[in-house]
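idk why but the lab printer keeps eating my pages so im just putting this in chat instead. protein + magnesium ion:
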Amino acid sequence: MPVKLRLTQYVHRLRAVLPAGTGLSHADWQNRHRLLTWLTIVCGLALAPVAALRDRLDVEWGVASLLIAAMIAGAVELRSQRLAASAVAVGLTVVCAELVMLFDGRTEAHFSFFVAVGALALYRDWVPFLTFLVATTLHHALFGSWMPHMTFQHDSGIGHPWFWAAIHGVAVLLAAATQVTAWRLTEAEERRALEDLSQAEAQFTAAFEEAPIAMTMLAADGTVLRVNPAFKSWTGMAGPLPPRAQLSDLPIQIEGARDTRLHRRILQGEADVLREERTFHNVDGRVHQVEMHASALRDSAGRLQVIVSHYLDVTEKHQHQEALRKQAREDALTGLLGRRAFEADLNMLVSEYAGEVSVIYIDVDRFKSVNDSYGHSAGDEVLRTIGARLRAVVPDTAVLARLGGDEFAVALVGPTTAVENLAISVAGCFEAPFPLPTGRKLTVTASVGLSLAGATGPEATLENADLAMYAAKQGGRARVQLFDDSMREATQQRVWAERTLRAALEGDLKSSLPVWFQPIYSLQTRTVVGAEALVRLRTPEGELIPPGLFIPLAEETGLVVPLGEHVLRTALEQLDAWGEAMPYVSVNVSPKQLAEPGFVPMLTDELTRSGLQDPSRLVLEITETSMLERGIDLSERLAAIKALGVRLALDDFGTGYSSLTWLQSVPADIVKLDRSFVVGLSHDQDKTAIITAVLWLARAMSMTVIAEGVEELEDAEALDKAGCPAAQGWYFSRPVEPPAMTALLTPRQVRAVS
Ligand code: C2E
Ligand code: MG
Ligand code: MG
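predcted complex ->
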C-alpha cells in the first residue's frame, strides 16, 4: 500500500476519533466568546495589582499588558469567529506567561496554563485550542532560552529550556486531552439527541400528514402552521395554506364564532386538552357536526408551542342517533309517541307551563277479546284507527301517545273546560264502528280517565288519570271518569289486599284462607239440605275479611285460580268428613277460574282424590252476570263438568240481564234467586209474581230453586207459600265454621256423621 494512501487512512481514523470541533450554534458560541473575552480582560487587569505588589511594574509587564489589550481588541473586533477565538487564546497565553514571569518562573504560576486550557475548551474548536497549545510551547521554549530564570525556577529548566518546554507542553496537552475527550463525548451525545429529535419529528410529520382525520396545527399566537391532506379534502380546500393564516381564513365556518372557543380557551391557558362538539359549515354549503379535540404542546418551561387539533366528523353518527332516538320515541304501529317519550314530553310541558298539565288516559274495553276473536291483525287495525282518530281531535299543543297495548294518553295544558271537552271528543272517537281488514265493522268502546291540572306533579297526574280510567272500567266501561281522591284510597286498599292475599296463599291455607259454610234449608222440612262454601281471608293481625273485598281482586290478578282450588279441595274434604249427613256442598267458581284450560282436569283430579262416590253432591255455583260480561262461551266447559256428574247452580239469578233465554242455554240444575228478590217479599206483590214465574220456568226445565238472603221469618214463609223448595240466609244461619255447621245438622244427620 502506498505510503500516501496509508497516511490519509490514518488521518481519517484520527479525525473519526477526535472531536469535529464544530457544533456550537452561533448564539451559543457568542455567549461563550463573551465569557472568555471577559475572563481575558479581568485576568489582564488583575496582573497590574500583582505586578505592583511584586514591585514589577516594568517594561515586560507593560509589553504584556499592551499585547493582552491588543488581543482583547482582536477578540471584540475580528469578524471571523476563529480569529477572534484565537485572539482570546493568545491573550490568555500572554496572561499566563506574564504571571510566570512575575513569579520568576515559579512552578505554581505554571498552573494558570491548565486553567486556561480548560477555559479555551469551551469554544469546542480546534483553532483557538491549538493556537493556545502552540503559543504555550513557543513561550516556554523561547522565553526558557531567552530568560530561563524567569521561566523555569529550577536549574534543569534553566539549563534545558526546550526540554522543559516540551515537558510543559506535554502536561498542558494531557490536560487538554481530558477536555478533548469530554468535548468529543458531548458531541456524540448531541448528535444522537439530534438524530432522535429529527426521527421524532419525522414520525410526527408522517402521523400528521397521513392521518385519515382532519388535523390542524396552530402556533401559540393562533396562526395556522399546518393543515393535513385529510383536512384539505374534508373542507375542499385547494392550494397551499396562505402564510400567517388564521382559522377564520380557512374554507370552513364554525358556527357561533369566528375562532373556535376551544382554541381560545387553550390559548388562554384554561386547559391543555379540550373537546367540544360544533357545527361546521363548508364552503360548498355542507354542514357537518364535528367533534373537535385540541391539545396543547408545551416546552420544558411550560410555554405553549403549538395546538394540535383533530376534527372528527360525527354527522353520520348523529344522523344514526337521531333515527334511533326517533325510533325509540315513536310507537311503530300508530306513529304516536311511546310511553318513555310521553313521560319525557309531559315533564317538558310541566316545566314550560309551571305544573298546569291535565292528562286523559284511554283504555280500550275488552281489547283482548278483539284480538282473540278476530286475530291480531284486526287488533292492530283497530289500534291504528284509534291512533288516527285521536290525532284528528287532539290539538297540536298537546302530547298524544300510545302507552302500550291498548292504552293511550293525552297530556295538555289549558283551562278545565277545554280539557273536559277534549275528553268528550276523545270518547267520541269510539262512536263510529271500526272497519277491519276483512271488511267487517266492529264496535269498540273505551274507558277514559281524566285528571285535571292540580298542584301534583306530572307523574301523579298521569297516575291519577290511570286510576280514573280504572274507575271508569269498574263503573261499567265505555265512559269518561274524572279523578277524585277516593280513587287513590281505593287503590291503596287494593294494593294492600293484593299483598295480603298473596301472602295468605303462600302461608298455611287452612288458617289464612278458612272456608266457612252457610247451611241451605228445606223450607218444608226445615232441615239442612246442603251448604255453601264461603271463603274468608284472615290477615296476619287475625282480622277476617269478607270475600266481596278480595274476590274481584283475586279475579283480576288471576290469584282466584289457586284460591278456588283451595276452596274446592277444602269443601270436598269437609263433604267427606260429614258423609251422608250433608246432602251436598256448593262451591263458588269465578268465570276466570272456569275459563282456565286446566279447570276441568283439576276438578277431575280433586274428585278422584276425595273419593266422592256421588259427584252430584258437589255443586258448582256460576254467576250469570260475570259470565255475560266476559263474553266467554263456556258451554263446552259446562258440558264437560256436567259429564263428570257434578251439578251446576246459577248464582245471583236476577241481578244481571236476567234473561230467561239464557237460563235455558245453561245446563244448570239449581237456580239461586238473588237476595234482591227475597228482601221484603212478603209484602211485595211484584216480587211474588216474578218468583212464581221463575219457579214455574225452573220446574219446567227440571231445575230446583234456592232463595238467597232470607233474613225474615215472613219472607221464608212467603217463599214456602210460593212453592220455593229451599233457602239460605241469616234467618236460618250466618256462614259458620265447619264445627258449627256440623252442629246445625239434625240429630239424625249428626248421628250419621258420628
Ligand atoms: P254468593 O255466592 O252470592 O254468596 C252468598 C253471600 O251472601 C255470602 O256472602 C253470604 O254471607 C251472604 N249472605 C247469606 N245470607 C245472607 C243474608 O241473609 N243477608 C245478607 N245480607 N247476606 C247474606 P259472602 O260470604 O261475603 O260472599 C260474597 C260473595 O263472594 C259470594 O256471593 C261469592 O260470589 C263470593 N265468594 C265467596 N266465596 C267464594 C269462593 O270460594 N270462590 C269464589 N269464586 N267466590 C266466592
Ligand atoms: Mg254463591
Ligand atoms: Mg249468591
